[in-house]
Amino acid sequence: MESIIEVRNIKKTYKKRKSKEIITAVNDISFTVNKGEILGLLGPNGAGKTTTIKLICGLLIPDSGFIKVNGIDTQEKRLHALRHISAVLEGNRNLYWRLTVRENLEYFAGNRGKSRKEVALEIDDLLEKFRLKEKEKELVNRLSRGMQQKLAIAVAMLADSEVILLDEPTLGLDVETGYEVREMLQDIVKNYNRTIIISSHDMDVIQNLCERTVIINHGEIVTNDKVDNLLRLFDVRAYTITLDGFLSEHQQQLLLQKFPQLEYIPDTIQSTLKVDLTKSEEIYDLFDVLKLEHTPVESIDKKTVNFEEVFMKIVKGEKQYAMV
Amino acid sequence: MQWFNLFNANIRKEYIELKRYLPNTLAMLFTFYFVFLGMFFGIQVIGDPSVQDINTQYAIVNYVFWFLTIMVIQDIGWQVINEGMRDTLEQLSMSPMGIWKIMTTRLLATTLLNFIIVVFLLFLSMLTTGQWLNIDVGTLLPILLLTLISMFGIGFIIAGISIVLKQVQAFLQILQFILAGLTFVPLTVAPFLAFFPFVKGVDLVRSVMIDGVTLSQIQATDWAILSVNAVVYFVLGLFIFLYCERFAMKRGLLAHY
Ligand SMILES: Nc1ncnc2c1ncn2[C@@H]1O[C@H](COP(=O)(O)OP(=O)(O)O)[C@@H](O)[C@H]1O
Ligand SMILES: [Mg+2]
């Protein structure tokens, strides 16, 4: 597949205003995004997601490395590259609050050199599609947060750029509106042929919308894989074993030696063992230990992990899982 | 065509906001008018009666011009500050037209709109005082045009500084008095001020409006100074603005962090 965004060895540091302390927000990251792909940029707060997005939009100049959009270097030909990009940045201030819904759409189109006439039909379409039609004459400061977010996304769509970047599009929305915005994004993904990067610290958003995810933490890429693959990876190797009785001290010691991350929850009725295995065969080692004292095994469950747990494990630095 | 659409969008935005926030606009006009009345009566009461008329004429021209100067020079500075506070500056910076072009069209738009206001205020002042000045449009227009271009340059410098430093409100307040000083001081007192961005311009405007100087009477050197000022300040202003924009993108200063 043809790549449309290429991020190469990007590094970005900030100097704090008062303390002059240097913060490395993004440290030597590289990834590509294919045409028509929906990429999730996932990471906890402060991981460097916003910085990465802003570097791609040309709002920040990297300390080193380069970014190409459609083959155009964002530093050498910044304005040229910007023709292919639009973005909804973090927070709710992507719009003019003193202008109406329609005026905002028209104004931003004008800023990209388009006349009101040229975009009139397209605006009607977008308003219809995003259920903002009745609100078209409403001032933006009177809209709910969710409506504002929808409008901001509509503005980005109107730019007609191949690439759309969305920084935390559901942040600060209540559950219902968040769901609505997600549906709207799903619609865009399905019906418009755009390349989209969505950043979020909410795994649900990524799991629902994205095919692939780049997970970053402390400014570095921890993993870059298909969302499905990540889930499968963990699905296979996370076991919960229910025991009828207790483990002896000796057994516990042996198990902990072999599996440092093993979790043992003793209970008078049924004890549980939770363990993530690097290789499936390791389960035999575990059973060898159980066999020593003929500990009865009640059940073995392959734990169903959700994306959140995968994410937490990866972020916590259990890299071996992701680096297969 | 793209320029035209850009200009259209920005003048429309400025106009809508001016209209929608009409009370603000009116309050500004009233403030202007009342300060002017104060000045006018001051001249009547404590001024030397033999030069009252000429003093009033100076007051009108200087005050109206000062108003225009503040409007034009501080405009994009304030725009940048406001957009920065509302976090829309980044959306503007992402326009493939370039933020300086957007700011230029906004500047043209506000200048045009403010110009209408200034002409209105001028006539209001003349009506109040009964002092009718010489409004020789053919002579005033080229002078004003060149003077405005140099003011745009200063506007860009201030906007650039605002992007980088953010907290420049206090500086802008002080700047109003510096601008007042430059507008009110006659060139004869300090001839070197002719190379300041708009001092030559206001001096010529005074001689046209008060002394009735005509287009053909204006010296070639005067035109030369006006033109050189216009080009130098505009280019310098743009250069500094672009430099500041780049600096802000390196340091992550475009957003309110
Ligand atoms: N303009 C800035 N100036 C100084 N530090 C910043 C700036 N923007 C972000 N940072 C710091 O850089 C790191 C990464 O921030 P960010 O990219 O916003 O992360 P995320 O979007 O993943 O939460 C954080 O430690 C943050 O405090
Ligand atoms: Mg962020």
Protein model, in words:
The complex is a heterodimer of chains A (324) and B (257). With 324 residues, chain A is an alpha/beta fold. In chain A, 37% of the residues lie in helices and 27% in strands. Chain A is built from twelve helices and 14 strands. Chain A has helices at 49-56, 78-82, 101-111, 116-129, 145-158, 175-191, 203-209, 227-237, 249-258, 282-292, 307-315, 319-322; strands at residues 3-15, 22-34, 38-42, 64-69, 72-73, 85-88, 163-167, 195-200, 212-217, 220-226, 238-243, 263-265, 271-276, 297-302. In chain A, the strands form three sheets. A six-stranded mixed beta sheet of chain A has the order 6-7-8-3-9-10, with helices on both faces. In chain A, helix 6 (175-191) links the parallel strand 7 (163-167) and strand 8 (195-200). By secondary structure, chain B is mostly helical. Chain B has one domain. The longest helix of chain B has 34 residues, at 52-85. Chain B starts with a helix and ends in a 6-residue tail after the last helix. The complex binds adenosine-5'-diphosphate and magnesium ion. Magnesium ion is lined by residues 49-50, 90, 168 of chain A.
Question: What's the CATH C level of the largest domain in chain A?
Answer: Alpha Beta
Structural class of chain A: alpha/beta
Determine the most extensive contact between two protein chains.
A-B, 39 and 34 residues
Question: What best-fitting shape of chain A do the alpha-carbon axes yield?
Answer: elongated
Q: What proportion strand of chain A? A: 25-35%
- Topology of chain B as a string of helices (H) and strands (E): HHHHHHHHH
